Amino acid sequence: MYKVDYHIHTEFSGDSKENIESMIERAIELGLAEIAITDHLEYDLLYIDWDKWTLNLDIYKAKILSLKKKYKDKIVIRFGIEIGVQPQTKDYLEAIVDKYDFDFVIASNHSIDKIDLASGILHEGRTRYEIQNLYFETVLKNIETYDKFNVFGHLDYVTRYGGSKFDEMDLEEHRDIIIKILETLISKGKGLEINTSGYRYGENRVYPRVEILKKYFELGGKIITIGSDAHVKEDVFKDLDRAYEILNELGINYITTFDKMKPILKKIN
Ligand SMILES: [Zn+2]
Ligand SMILES: [Zn+2]
């Protein structure tokens, strides 16, 4: 089986303290053929501690390129990033993507109107439907706006925040906008990731849920990456066996990897 983990955070992310080499060593120990380090880049947000969230891209890139060389006989390491997209930050973030010549870029919608979804502030005074609908509308705006990314991150993870009142999702209520999002991704040649962190956050599922993945393939989507969203070494490749199982059940026997943002299809078995 071609084992990869295409969503890994390290000490360069504001929310991880894990030594980058420990992550790589763990991936080698688990027999992975390939990983993408995808530390966070956030921009233009309110109420966050910028000292913690500033990613020094020169140092980050130099470190990954040196580790790529050091471990080249043991594992393929891709220079990636997870950018937190907002419509007004397109020019700024796309210039960075151009400048740093990444292998792989995940675009994720972590915030709405400059406020992080995780803060719970956006949930105040809104119903579950309202926050979920607002989230998907913002995702659509972002993917219509942005061009320089490869896959969209954890598409329906909005259920993770705001407390139990905001758990679960009635897919029928959001059907039209989700289809629009999938069609837009497909028409722009962009993919989705299967993100297994939902199992660790008490949601007992992958992001996005299987019904959405199925729809993506039915609509003609082909680009799919898989990632744990690990922030500590113990979570590298965590629950990715379930992602492979889901692909198998959907009759898909390949995943996508990226080199300099060019997709490469790899057979799983
Ligand atoms: Zn994310
Ligand atoms: Zn992440």
Provide keyphrases for this structure.
alpha/beta; two-stranded antiparallel sheet; 11 strands; 20% strand
Task: Characterise this structure.
The protein is α/β, with parallel strands linked by helices. It has a single domain, classed as Metal-dependent hydrolases (TIM Barrel). The protein is built from eight helices and eleven strands. Strands 1-2-3-4-7-8-9 form a seven-stranded parallel beta sheet. Strands 5-6 form a two-stranded antiparallel sheet. A two-stranded antiparallel ribbon has the order 10-11. Strand 7, helix 6 and strand 8 form a beta-alpha-beta unit. The chain binds zinc ion (ZN) (2 copies). The site of one zinc ion (ZN) has 4 residues, from loops. One zinc ion binds next to loops.
Briefly characterize the structure.
The chain is built from 8 helices and 11 strands. It has 269 residues and is α/β, with parallel strands linked by helices.
Ordered list of secondary-structure elements with their pairings:
Elements: E1 4-8, H1 20-29, E2 34-41, H2 50-53, H3 57-70, E3 76-84, H4 90-100, E4 104-108, E5 111-112, E6 115-116, H5 128-145, E7 151-152, H6 171-187, E8 191-195, H7 210-218, E9 224-227, H8 240-249, E10 254-259, E11 262-267
Parallel strand pairs: 1-2, 2-3, 3-4, 4-7, 7-8, 8-9
Antiparallel strand pairs: 5-6, 10-11
Helix pairs in contact: 5-6
Bound molecules: zinc ion (2 copies).
One zinc ion is lined by residues 82, 108, 110, 153-154.
